[in-house]
Amino acid sequence: MPVFPHRLKFRFGIVPLRKFSPEMVYVTRLEHFNAAHRLFNPAWDKEQNERVFGKCANENWHGHNYELYVTVKGNPDPDTGFLFDARQLGALIREKVTDKLDHKNLNLDVDFMRGKMCSSENLSIEIWKQLSPHLPSGVTLHCIKLYETPRIYIEYFGE
Amino acid sequence: MSAGKKIAVFRKEYFNAAHRLFNPSWDDQRNEAVFGKCNNPNYHGHNYELTVRLTGEPDPETGFVMDLKVLSDIIKEHVVDLFDHKNLNLDIPHFKNLNPTAENICIVIYNILREKIDPRFDIQARLYETERNFVEYPVDIH
What is the pTM of this model? Predict the structure, then answer.
């Protein structure tokens, strides 16, 4: 069988094993939680709360299936090829965030939401604060993307 | 007997609600053992997705089994407006003495709709509590 020169070049031209990868990659992990909440401002009367928050102000709560996308960025580790093992990222999100939120009442049961308005905006910001101190060096939190319904989501980039 | 062919049409609607699973005749420990985290006394919640299947023959004049806008309006008026942004245990009279599991919610919805939709149509309700947990009532018999 003849060996074609361009094929040889193709084969031996790929020598990608550098000591580290300088390329920035983004890894996203999706976790879920189902929770009750209510939007209301305790400084306002019932009428003003209903005017501003409508049915979301229902004093007996309502709830959602939340979807949480956590995106981290950094350079892949030369030994594993991973930026951050997605299983470890999932375990970290569950430990620090979703275990505290799943099947809970966001207004009443969650320490890091106490005294705050339970909007998805504020929840995204607080989730960022819960996660960012626990990431290993070289791994930076890039985005918290929180779906409250399939058609409503919030993004927070730590700014 | 009509020589027409039966066909199914479907309408999907959504509602977001809080609930809690527990049996008031059991003590806390047993409720906890059976219902786990779903028993949280402060409630939790879901984005419920409801699909209603309506089976019948297309009307020769319109080509519709039922105008889906009409079906949508019936579901919205009698189900979604009742359940959306509510606490199923506290706000919905049907669950005063009935555990609001996906099964029971689906049966309640079917019964509500059955009264509002012409009996010449078969209907079935499918209720998604989460993307991966869903129930259907009544069950198809093949």
Answer: 0.86
